[in-house]
Specification:
alpha+beta; Immunoglobulin-like; 33% strand
Length: 157
């Protein structure tokens, strides 16, 4: 399991660095569009037929042969936890991804940006029984994190 986690951490970091930035265009301002790309974390092979559940809306989506969901137009549900420090326009959603033979994957605080599109890579691993759910928490955007750091330190980058 340690080898799997090590590969996941490297793969996840690489995916985040190489992710396409969200594109903002012609989407209702109170919604954002998200696509999930679900792959086997060991082989990078797409996982067809994975079920993606959006906890806040109750909607379910299924991946195609390329491991992709269709475009999911989702509401921007704000997270007011940090508003006293620095308001954030992004919404936060929870995705549960299920695929036969794979450890369930729970993505918490997935960013949904008003009027923008983004693709999120989900790396799933074979279910060896050692972990009931693989849980990932997505960080706020780099821009918001930078602005909060500057506010707290009083120093621009």
């Amino acid at each position: 399991m340690k080898k799997i986690l090590s590969k996941f951490v490297f793969s996840f970091a690489l995916a985040v660095m190489l992710s396409v930035l969200p594109s903002c265009a012609e989407i209702k301002p109170e919604y954002g569009t998200v696509r999930l790309r679900v792959v086997d974390g060991m082989t990078d092979s797409p996982i067809e037929g994975a079920i993606v559940k959006v906890a806040e809306t109750g909607e379910s989506f299924v991946t195609d042969e390329s491991g992709m969901t269709g475009s999911m137009e989702l509401p921007v549900i704000g997270d007011s936890e940090y508003d006293r420090l620095l308001p954030n326009d992004e919404g936060r959603l929870t995705f549960l991804v299920l695929a036969e033979g794979m450890t369930p994957y729970l993505l918490l605080y997935a960013r949904v940006t008003p009027g923008c599109r983004r693709t999120v890579d989900i790396l799933m691993f074979p279910d060896d029984g050692s972990l009931p759910v693989f849980t990932v928490i997505e960080a706020p955007s780099a821009g918001w994190s930078k602005a909060l750091k500057e506010k707290l330190t009083g120093q621009p980058d």
